[in-house]
Amino acid sequence: MSGVKRIPVTEPVWKDLSEMRAAGQTYAELLMDMIEERKKRRLEDDVKMWESLPDSAYVPLSKIKD
């Protein structure tokens, strides 16, 4: 790690994080896992939104000019 940063959290948040942590898992690893899950969820939500758009919402690449 290039450096250690501290993130202040309330006691209830600390307790919840502690309960989510697997045996031997660091808080940094837990947070990295949570971040990855959030990124995946955002991508899935974006894809669902794109798929729900009507075809008329899309512009063919051939019509896009630089």
Query: What amount of the residues lies in strands?
Result: under 5%
Number of helices: 2
Helical proportion, percent range = 40-55%
**Given the helix and strand composition, which structural class is it?**
mainly alpha
Radius of gyration: 20 Å
Q: Mean pLDDT, nearest integer?
A: 92
Layout: helices, strands, pairs:
Blueprint: H1 11-20, H2 27-52
In short:
With 66 residues, the protein is mostly helical.
Descriptors:
single chain, 2 helices, 66 residues
Structure description:
This protein has 66 residues and is mostly helical. It has a domain of 26 residues.
